[in-house]
Design goal:
The protein contains 2 helices and 16 strands. The protein is globular.
Length: 389
C-alpha cells in the first residue's frame, strides 16, 4: 500500500509542477459531424483506418500477436439542418494476409444535436470516442470490435463533457441457441478548476456494466453481469506560449473497482480493485513520452486491456491467474495531422512486470482519414456544389 501511495503522490506532483497521460486517442475517433454552419445537404462520410500493431508479449496473461490491416466505413449522409443528421452505409475490415474480408456490416445512424446536447440512435460514436481509461476499455477494440449499436446521449458544455450509452451487442430471438449480450456505460469529465495560465483540474467518472443472459433462448449457461467503475483526478497543463518546447503535460490518476453481480458466481474473482497513475508530456513537435504505473488486485474487466487483468485473456495461458499485478509503462509516441487530411499515430509501448521481473513491448502505426464530402446543398431549393470538412 505504501508503494502504491508513493507512486500516486509522485504522479500528482509531476503534473502540478507542469510537467495527455494514458495515450490520447483523439485522432482515431470516428464522430458524426454536426455544427451551426451546416445547411440542408446530401453528402458522403468517409472514415478509413489502416493499422499495424505488433504485441511482443511473453506473459501468461497475454501472449504476443499482430494486428495488420485496414478498415473503411463509408456512409451516405442527409443533413436535414444544423440539428439533425441521418446517415447509412457499410463498414468493412480487411486483414492483410487474408484474401477474404474479416468483417462486413451495415451501419445506420440518426443524430440530433442542440446547445451542447446530442442523442444518437443506431451506430454510435463508440470505442475510443468514449474516452474511458484503459483498465475499463482496451483501445484495441477500435480494430477488433469497431462497431457499437444502440442509444447514446452526450453532453459537451464549457465545464462538463459526458457520454452515456447502451451498446446492444448480440440480439437473441425466441429459441436462440445463444444468449443476448449488452453493455451500458458512462464517461464524464467535469472541470473543477482552471486558470488563464493553462492549468486545469478535472474530475472523471466512469462506469461500464456488461451483461450476458436473456429469457427466451435455449442456452442454459448462467447469466453473467460485471461492473467496472473508475474515478480519480486529472491535471492538465497547456503551455500558453505557442513557441515553447513543452506543449502540454497531463497526469491522469484513477482508482478502479470491479464487481461480479451475477446471481451465480462464475468468475475466478468476484471483486477487485486497482490504481492507475500516469504522466504524459507532449512537445511542440507532437512527440510525446508517457510513463505509467498499474497496481491491481483480483481485477477483471470484460472490455479492459488484457495487461491490467488478473486472469489470462484468450491470448494467454488458459486457466492462469495472477491475483496481484504491478506494471510500469513507458510509452513513446508521435501523433500528427499531416496535409490537413491524414492523421498519423506511431507508438512504442514497453512495459515491465514488477512481480515477474521481465520486460515486454508493443509497437504500432495508424493512418487515419476522416472526411465529409458534400455533394450538394438543398437550401432554398438550390443545388450547388460544395465541400465541407
Amino acid at each position: 500500500m505504501k508503494k502504491i501511495t508513493l507512486v500516486f503522490i509522485v504522479s500528482m506532483l509531476l503534473a502540478i509542477l507542469k510537467s495527455d497521460a494514458q495515450i490520447s486517442n483523439t485522432l482515431l475517433e470516428n464522430t458524426i459531424e454536426l455544427n451551426d454552419s451546416m445547411q440542408e445537404s446530401v453528402g458522403l462520410s468517409i472514415f478509413s483506418n489502416t493499422f499495424f500493431k505488433n504485441n511482443e508479449y511473453f506473459d501468461n496473461i497475454a501472449k504476443g500477436y499482430t494486428l495488420f490491416g485496414t478498415q473503411l466505413q463509408t456512409e451516405l449522409a442527409y443533413i436535414i439542418n444544423k440539428n439533425i443528421r441521418i446517415q447509412a452505409g457499410v463498414y468493412a475490415r480487411k486483414d492483410f494476409g487474408n484474401d477474404d474480408f474479416t468483417k462486413v456490416a451495415p451501419v445506420l445512424s440518426v443524430k440530433l444535436q442542440t446547445k451542447g446536447y446530442s442523442v444518437i440512435m443506431g451506430t454510435l460514436e463508440g470505442n475510443v470516442a468514449h474516452q474511458l481509461s484503459e483498465p475499463l476499455y482496451d483501445y484495441e477494440r477500435l480494430i477488433l470490435h469497431p462497431l457499437e449499436n444502440g442509444l447514446q446521449i452526450k453532453v459537451d458544455k464549457k465545464k462538463i463533457w459526458a457520454d452515456t450509452w447502451i451498446n446492444w451487442e448480440v440480439q437473441e430471438y425466441l429459441n436462440s441457441t445463444y444468449q443476448e449480450q449488452l453493455s451500458v456505460g458512462h464517461s464524464s469529465k467535469t472541470i473543477l478548476y482552471q486558470t488563464k495560465k493553462g492549468l486545469q483540474i478535472t474530475w472523471p467518472m466512469q462506469f461500464l456494466f456488461t451483461h450476458t443472459g436473456g429469457q427466451i433462448d435455449l442456452d442454459t449457461t448462467p447469466l453473467k453481469t460485471l461492473s467496472n467503475v473508475a474515478t480519480g483526478i486529472l491535471l492538465h497543463y497547456q503551455n500558453p506560449n505557442p513557441k515553447g518546447f513543452i506543449k502540454s503535460v497531463t497526469s491522469e490518476n484513477y482508482i478502479t473497482y470491479f464487481n461480479e453481480l451475477s446471481p451465480t458466481k462464475v468468475l475466478n474473482f468476484q471483486e477487485g480493485r486497482g490504481l492507475y497513475a500516469n504522466v504524459n508530456i507532449t512537445s511542440k513537435y507532437d512527440i510525446g513520452v508517457s510513463s505509467g504505473y498499474w497496481s491491481g488486485k483480483n481485477y477483471l474487466s470484460s472490455r479492459g486491456g488484457d495487461l491490467f487483468k488478473s486472469e489470462a485473456s484468450i491470448y494467454g495461458q488458459k486457466g492462469f491467474t495472477a491475483p496481484k499485478r504491478s506494471l510500469l509503462f513507458l510509452r513513446l509516441l508521435y501523433q500528427r495531422r499531416i496535409f490537413d487530411a491524414l492523421n498519423v499515430n506511431v507508438r512504442f509501448e514497453p512495459y515491465f512486470d514488477l512481480n515477474e521481473n521481465y520486460l515486454a513491448y508493443s509497437y504500432s502505426v495508424y493512418f487515419t482519414y476522416k472526411k465529409d464530402l458534400s455533394f450538394f446543398n438543398l437550401t432554398n431549393g438550390k443545388r450547388r456544389s460544395n465541400y465541407v470538412r
